[in-house]
Design brief:
Largest sheet: 3 strands, antiparallel
CATH superfamily: Winged helix-like DNA-binding domain superfamily/Winged helix DNA-binding domain
Radius of gyration: 15 Å
CATH architecture: Orthogonal Bundle
Number of domains: 1
Structural class: alpha+beta
Strand content: 5-15%
Shape: globular
Length: 98
């Protein structure tokens, strides 16, 4: 039995879909998607928050995350796989024939 390895775009889409369901997601909701607290730190704190795609809100001892305006645009781009493939083809590399 082989395990399926999710792509980075699939992981990001799962995170943003989770946030989209209720308007915000708890730290625990996102950790369940990512699997470990290290992955949470890597994805949420080091990428999504650093790039201002999501923002954090604290309520007592609980943390919640919601999309920013930029995060909303990023989510739309991820949903449209054609746009993402086009961006990946031209990002930092010479355009190759496919």
């Amino acid at each position: 039995m082989s395990s399926y390895k999710r792509t980075s775009s699939e992981i990001a889409l799962e995170i943003l879909d989770c946030i989209d369901k209720k308007g915000e997601a708890s730290r625990w909701d996102l950790t369940k998607i990512l699997g470990t607290t290290w992955q949470f730190h890597h994805w949420v704190e080091d990428f999504l928050m650093k790039e201002r795609l999501i923002e954090e809100r604290q309520e007592a001892r609980n943390y919640f995350y919601r999309k920013t305006e930029t995060g909303e645009l990023f989510h739309k781009l991820l949903k449209n796989g054609h746009v993402m493939r086009a961006l990946l083809r031209v990002s930092g590399r010479r355009l190759r024939r496919s």
